[in-house]
Every structure is written in C-alpha cells, then in structure tokens.
Amino acid sequence: MKHLVSEPITACNREAPNDCHREVSNACNREASNDCHREVSNDPELVEGFGREPTLPAAFRWRNETLEIKAVLARRRSTKVDRGDTYLKRHWFDLETSGGRIVTVYYDRAAKRGQPHWWLYAIEE
Q1: 3-state SS of the chain: helix, strand, coil percent to 5?
Q2: How many whole angstroms separate alpha carbon 2 and alpha carbon 20?
Q3: Domain ranges of the chain
Q4: Given phi > 0 = left and psi -120 to 50 = alpha, else beta, which region is 73?
Q5: How many CB atoms lie within 10 A of CB 20?
Q6: N or C, fewer C-beta in 10 Å, the chain?
Q7: 59-74: per-residue pLDDT in tens?
Q8: Residue 89 Cα distances to 15, 51, 58, 78, 86, angstroms
C-alpha cells in the first residue's frame, strides 16, 4: 500500500550512512548513463535527458528511521513556468530501500537557505 507523506528528510553522508546529522554535498553529477535500473554508486553522473542532478545519498533519515538506498528504479523531473520562462523545479527518484520498500523522494532546487532540499513524497509498505 502506498502512503503519501510529503515530509522533509535528511540526506545521510555516503562515508557514514548512519551519521545523518550532517548534510551531504549538493554536488552535480558528471558521468553519462541512461540506465535508471542500477545499483546506487558513489560516483556522480550526468543523466542524458535530465541534465545535472543532485547526487543521491546512500541513505535518508526519516522520523526515527534510516532508509538505506539499494537501487534507483526511475527518475524524472518537474518544471515551473515563471513570467514565460520554464525552470527546473524538482528532481524525482523512485528508489528501492535495503528493506524492500519503494519510496519516492524529490530534491527541491528552489529551497531557500536553511530549508530542506530533500523530501519523502511517498512510501510503499
């Protein structure tokens, strides 16, 4: 069953997935790839058709739980129109966790300083 959540989540550091108190870098991706069904790697990438994306962390902290990412199932993006110009608003990811759950998260590019960038949108039990 899919539950819509829409709550901020904390990105965990790749070198220490259990240390979720420090935010990870928002570095852009550089390596070319079309394959969305892949294991999560530590290497940033440039995804054809999606431009530069935020690097996915190894895990997210949500409420009192760590959601460790096993695989990326799908990725997409959403845009907004402002005064006739179209801007990239969010990067969306459907992910499988190490516990077998499917989660949908997004990275909000328009988040203000001090506001969360990563959000858990939905989780399937």
Answers
A1: 0, 55, 45
A2: 25
A3: 2-124
A4: alpha
A5: 20
A6: N
A7: 999 999 999 999 999 9
A8: 28, 13, 23, 6, 9
